[in-house]
Amino acid sequence: GRAAGLALVFVCDEETGGRGAEIVFPEFAARGLEIESAVVGEPTGLDLAVAQKGMMVLELEESGDACHAAHARRLEAKNALIELARDLLALEELELGHEHAFLGRSTLVATVAKAGEARNRNPDFAHAVLDLRTVPGDDHEALHQLVRQTVRGTVHARSIRLRPCCIDADHDLVMDARALRPEARVFGSPTMSDWVFLGDVPALKCGPGQTDRSHVADEFVLASELDDGLDFYRRLAERRLNRN
Fold first, then answer.
1. CA-to-CA distance for 70 and 125, rounded, in angstroms?
2. Is the per-residue pLDDT at 1 higher than 60?
3. Which of 38, 119, 148, 220 gets the most CB atoms within 10 Å of its CB?
């Protein structure tokens, strides 16, 4: 068989759509290279993320009757803003999917809303963006349908391709990592990463640094954390290559 090797993949645009990883990983397959397992470098404090939430973005739209605000009640005009509010309250009560051992349930949060253009005009259009974070086992198309059935408005899918990821906690990749870092916590990560583009490849999210420092002013990684991360990655790579 083909000799085992180690590939270091440094990609761009992880925070803005994952275009780097989305292009690179299929290129491995195109060249006949099989990815046996992978470690996704993210700031976990070198704890071991064995599951990761996926993401869906849905757009909810409601319509109403445009008229002067002074006449809206008399005309019994439909207010798109009120209709949108009712939809959002209904979604707030919605229980999504099943309970995942490491990630809990899928969640839905309304993150952006817009309605109306003038203070004296009954709004005839209202729009909201829904951010869903999904757990393994919950089907994105089924969740989309559930949201559509819960509201009166129209629901469009902006993005449903970023699926949740997981690896069995007793997979040999996890066991190798735990053997090298027995003090490491095994957990589920609520945030996205390029893991989502690895498909069915067994993978683990683990790296130096603390996730709470991400996306804040003066984010940083300690030199000592980098040293620990380098040592862990080196020993894990050696262990995996020797296994093969």
1. 18
2. no
3. 38
132 contacts 143 by C-beta, under 8 angstroms: yes
Total residue length of the chain: 244
**Residue 134 near residue 140 (C-beta atoms within 8 A):** yes
Give the domains, in start order, of the chain with CATH numbers.
14-53+164-243 (3.40.630.10), 54-162 (3.30.70.360)
- pLDDT category at 87 given cuts 50, 70, 90 is very high
Q: How far is the CA of 96 from the CAs of 22, 93, 109, 163, in angstroms?
A: 28, 10, 12, 15
The CA dihedral of 17, 23, 29, 32, to the nearest 10 degrees, is -150
Q: What is the pLDDT of residues 44-69, one digit of tens each?
A: 999 999 999 999 999 999 999 999 99
With b meaning 16 or more CB within 10 Å and e meaning fewer, what string describes 14-47? beeebebbeebbeeeeeeeeebebbbbbbbbbbb
- pLDDT tens across 139-186, in order? 999 999 999 999 999 999 999 999 999 999 999 999 999 999 999 999
